[in-house]
Design a protein that fits this description.
The protein is α/β, with parallel strands linked by helices. It has 10 helices and 12 strands. A 5-stranded mixed β-sheet has the order 4-3-5-12-6, with helices on one face. Strands 9-8-10-7-11 form a 5-stranded mixed β-sheet. A two-stranded antiparallel sheet has the order 1-2. Strand 8, helix 8 and strand 9 form a beta-alpha-beta unit. It is rod-shaped.
Length: 300
């Protein structure tokens, strides 16, 4: 069975509404001859004259009258499907979004994001999950709606990204630590004992690479899988934790923070999402909320 030409639905809707080939042609920006050919096709498809001459005008047949309401409803539904998505009614929106973020991000920005979303869309629930690797599969498979992190070479090229803020590494020790009594030089930093932070149990990382460039090596006393654990260890010992500054703002409260005595380039933290969510109106709103929460922190 041949597939029907769905364009004829709109033509039929306009013809039945106007009751005139000429007026229908003007409305659809077609020539009268093209509209006459379309009417001929409609008659052939439906097996009914649809519009017949009565004096100088055209009148609908019983079949046309029967179809008028149905056809108009179908055309409206098709137009609604093809129309760009409207801004969601946030007050009525009920949805759960899963956000995957690295250690420290939720602690610093999560509460502000929750306050914003709860105020605008009380039916929305945010589910935070720990980011343990850079695998793009959770975004691609729909297990995660939005992710934050540094976009590296391993990131899938299909993902959409938006920069959130720039961060840098700083050194952190407990309040009253001997190092905090005077200027922390490269020699004093390298001589102290350190906490290695690695999600994948690596023996070295970007801090060690930067130190090697400066001709130094640090002594690793212990390791931790995240910033929170590293700072907790540093708070109760004489060890140094080297962590991202903005990721750990609230976690470093009451501790002594210092600029690193060697060069380390800053890095950009971004949000990432899969292209299928790009045009989703509710997802766009969530992205704007996250961006606002981070920018508010910058302003503060």
């Amino acid at each position: 069975m041949a597939h029907p030409d769905l364009n004829l639905l709109m033509t039929l809707d306009v013809l039945l509404d106007e009751g005139s080939v000429a007026r229908a042609a003007r409305r659809l920006r077609l020539s009268p001859s093209a509209m006459s050919r379309a009417l001929a096709r409609l008659r052939d498809t439906t097996g009914d004259p649809l519009l017949v001459r009565a004096g100088r005008g055209l009148v609908p047949t019983p079949r046309a009258l029967e179809l008028r309401g149905q056809v108009h409803g179908l055309v409206q539904e098709v137009e609604a499907v093809l129309r760009p998505a409207a801004q969601p009614d946030l007050a009525r929106l009920t949805r759960t979004f899963t956000l995957r973020a690295s250690d420290g991000f939720v602690e610093n920005f999560g509460a502000r994001l929750l306050a914003r979303t709860a105020h605008e869309a009380p039916g929305v629930r945010l589910r935070f999950v720990q980011k343990t690797d850079k695998d793009s599969a959770p975004l691609r498979e729909g297990d995660v709606d939005l992710e934050t992190g540094v976009v590296g070479d391993a990131a899938s090229p299909e993902l959409r990204t938006r920069a959130l803020f720039q961060d840098r590494f700083v050194g952190v020790v407990r309040k009253g630590h001997p190092l905090a009594a005077s200027k922390i030089t490269l020699a004093r930093y390298a001589k102290a004992r350190h906490i290695q932070i690695s999600r994948r149990n690596r023996d070295s990382g970007p801090v060690d690479a930067a130190l090697a460039t400066a001709g130094r090596e640090r002594s690793i006393a212990t390791s931790a899988s995240g910033f929170s654990a590293a700072l907790a260890l540093a708070r109760g010992s004489d060890l140094i934790a080297t962590v991202p500054e903005r990721h750990t703002g609230s976690l470093r409260s009451g501790m002594h923070t210092f600029a690193l005595p060697f060069a380390m380039p800053p890095f950009t933290v971004s949000m990432l999402w899969h292209p299928r969510m790009d045009a989703d109106a509710a997802h766009r709103w969530l992205r704007s909320c996250l961006l606002d929460a981070v920018q508010h922190d910058t302003a503060g």
